[in-house]
Amino acid sequence: AQSVAQPEDQVNVAEGNPLTVKCTYSVSGNPYLFWYVQYPNRGLQFLLKYITGDNLVKGSYGFEAEFNKSQTSFHLKKPSALVSDSALYFCAVRDSYTDKLIFGTGTRLQVFP
Amino acid sequence: EAGVAQSPRYKIIEKRQSVAFWCNPISGHATLYWYQQILGQGPKLLIQFQNNGVVDDSQLPKDRFSAERLKGVDSTLKIQPAKLEDSAVYLCASSLAGTPYEQYFGPGTRLTVT
Predict the structure, then answer these.
(1) Which residues of chain A fall short of a pLDDT of 50?
(2) Which of A32, A100, B20, B85 suits a disulfide with A94, CB 3.0-4.6 Å?
(3) Which residues from B are below 8 Å from A when comparing CB atoms?
(4) Could you state, in order of their start, the residue ranges of all structural domains in chain B?
(5) Is residue B107 classed as helix, strand or coil in its secondary structure?
(6) Which residues of A touch B45 (CB under 8 A)?
(7) Domains within chain A, CATH numbers bracketed
(8) CATH number, span B5-113
């Protein structure tokens, strides 16, 4: 079955420090990978995607993600965290059979001042 | 550009009652999605429309859930009768036909069934 896993329920980081939110995937064929962010009482917002090309993908709000085929990972990163980055982050993968998006369970990022 | 609109934002009903949610997608977005997000889980696709036709409703519990997209624009999702396990946030999303993976989500409707 095609799936995506986010091994951490919560990530805590101090403001100004680098952050990483982990995601691993399992798909047939070439993966299409995505990150979405959900702020409190708001819908999901698209951050970035990897379909093909450079392994390092840059997205909104200074976030980037690194595609690693050998480790089947697509970790979300930011060099310097902001308190306003505190939110729920979802990794997603395209199901290559149905073309649907399959979301992970989410990782809550808490950035402390 | 206006985003995806949903109403109501919150709804509390008793089990066995019925409820309806409304969604207005971004203008020009041909594809519309309804997701169910249970607390602690990622969104799960319930139904996908392309214009006013259903593309995928394989995970829609059709004995109690129904959805329509009149004239290929607005959409409504209905639950009748509701069960306790239907308590969740119902998200509507839309996308351009050519970029189905760049989905724009509405704020969601939080449903509590008591």
Answers:
(1) none
(2) A32
(3) 3-4, 6, 40-45, 48, 56, 58, 91, 93, 100-108
(4) 5-113
(5) coil
(6) 100-101
(7) 3-112 (2.60.40.10)
(8) 2.60.40.10
